[in-house]
Design a protein that fits this description.
Length: 211
């Protein structure tokens, strides 16, 4: 039997053309990269000229180190009646033909204030009067012993003629500053001169703001 000698297989060397092709590809990549870098360097100034970078200064005082006062911003909920107020309304028509001051039926509220406050008195009504008649109004403030009249005092209105049935919607505001703590009754009063007048739907709201 013949002896067969094993032999180690050695692959033949690659053709010389493959090595040269790989070197060509690597060189092309390097050249392309260098061209892109050179292009960016050349066009960068032009791009920046199209989109200039602005130097903007913050306005003086826009940023400050001032600190808000303690409790200036808070999530505390005001307790009930922290700002005293009261209101009332009525719808029954009432008539008047005399100049003397009278309380308007149902237009009176009481309010208790714990500290010196400014009273805001808001009154609205629908009214009508004779052609030659005028209705006057004022807000009375009574503390049980003394009566004062809220600013600016008397207000006058001459609504549409009674015969034509031209009712007018009216609103008046009064203000009384620096009212001492205590219990007060606020009442709207009226008088009519030169004929007769009537009022119907009406409301009164009084608010006490801390002085």
């Amino acid at each position: 039997m013949r002896n067969i000698r094993s032999m180690n297989y050695v692959p033949p060397p690659p053709p010389g053309g493959v090595k040269s092709s790989m070197k060509g590809i690597a060189l092309a990549i390097v050249v392309a990269y260098l061209l892109s870098v050179i292009t960016m360097i050349i066009i960068a100034p032009y791009v920046l000229s199209l989109f200039p970078i602005k130097n903007q200064q913050i306005a003086d005082g826009a940023v400050t180190t001032d600190k808000l006062a303690d409790e200036a911003v808070t999530n505390l909920i005001l307790s009930a009646y922290a700002i005293p107020y009261n209101s009332t309304s009525g719808t029954i028509q009432i008539n008047k033909s005399t100049l003397a001051w009278e309380d308007i039926d149902g237009m009176s509220v009481t309010i208790n204030i714990k500290r010196t406050s400014h009273l805001i008195i808001l009154f609205s009504t629908s009214a009508v009067a004779d052609v030659d008649a005028s209705i006057r109004w004022r807000a009375s403030i009574w503390n049980g012993t003394t009566e004062i009249y809220a600013q600016p005092g008397e207000l006058y209105m001459q609504p549409g003629g009674l015969k034509a049935g031209l009712w007018a919607s009216l609103s008046y505001d009064w203000y009384q500053p620096n009212v001492n703590a205590g219990n007060y009754t606020i009442t709207i009063q009226w008088g009519v001169t030169g004929g007769s007048g009537s009022i119907k739907t009406r409301s009164l709201t009084v608010i006490a703001l801390p002085a």
